[in-house]
Write a structure and sequence with these properties.
Helix content: 25-40%
Distance between the termini: 47 Å
Strand order of the largest sheet: 4-6-5-7-10-8-9
Radius of gyration: 16 Å
Number of helices: 8
Largest sheet: 7 strands, mixed
Shape: globular
Length: about 240
């Protein structure tokens, strides 16, 4: 089976993925519990096709306040910048988990597992042992904004407050990104709730010099802008406030 999809337009079940010349993926809207637009509906299926350490990797830490988890299950090249943010927000103060796509191209179309179907064992173990969870995701769109979802209403308001105080645009997530399904990985905590933030591509570009979110750029901390650092500080402040 091919590991790379080479078409400029690919139909995946009910979803259509467009690959633009700059490598950006634009995906048609599907609900987060629907995996019909995904190549794989479980981690086991993905793991049969792709190799750990070569095609994907897991980075995690259990250091810090065990009541918390910061995660990016679509990290690396899947939804660019989300794993970098996750590690920065967690620092040494909070546990984190990130699943990172390492393919040379088309990470999203090949390695993205929808949030209600993401069942990688280490990820499930970490989230089930925590009370508070911030799941960081990337969304399409050139307008710089953050869309908030998830079932932890109090934490959602804390995140919204601190991001807005720092000048970031925040909106409620649309239905297909709202993270309110009980099976969503975001909500698999002891309390059965968490917060899912969807950060547009436009906002993520502002986190790096010249809007460059390529692999080489985002893996060089010197390319992170002040905006990146302020965003991280806002999320950390929300966690402390909560």
């Amino acid at each position: 089976m091919f590991k790379k999809l080479i078409f400029s337009v690919i139909i995946l079940g009910t979803a259509i993925v467009w690959f633009l010349p700059n490598g950006e993926e634009i995906v048609s809207e599907t609900t987060d519990e629907d995996c019909s637009g995904e190549r794989f509906c479980s981690f086991e299926e993905l793991n049969e096709e792709y190799e750990e350490g070569k095609d994907w990797e897991i980075l995690k830490s259990t250091d810090g306040d065990e009541q918390w988890l910061v995660s990016a299950i679509h990290g690396g090249g899947i939804e660019e910048v989300t794993s970098s943010l996750t590690e920065a927000v967690a620092g040494s103060s909070y546990p984190f988990y990130t699943f990172k796509g390492r393919l040379t191209s088309n990470n999203f179309s090949n390695l993205h597992i929808t949030s209600t179907r993401f069942d990688e064992p280490q990820a499930l173990e970490m989230v089930s042992n925590t009370n508070h969870h911030i799941a960081i995701h990337g969304a399409s769109g050139e307008e710089a904004k953050t869309m908030i979802g998830g079932m932890d209403k109090e934490l959602k308001e804390a995140v919204r407050k601190h991001l807005e105080e720092k000048g970031f645009k925040v909106t409620e997530a649309p239905d297909h990104l709202n993270g309110d399904h009980p099976d969503n990985y975001t909500n698999q905590t002891k309390k059965g709730q968490g917060v899912q933030i969807e950060i547009t591509r436009g906002q993520r570009k502002e986190f790096y010099k010249n809007g460059d979110i390529s692999f080489s750029s985002r893996n060089d901390p010197s390319n992170e802008t002040k905006t990146f650092k302020v965003y991280v500080e806002a999320l950390q402040a929300a966690m402390k406030d909560y």
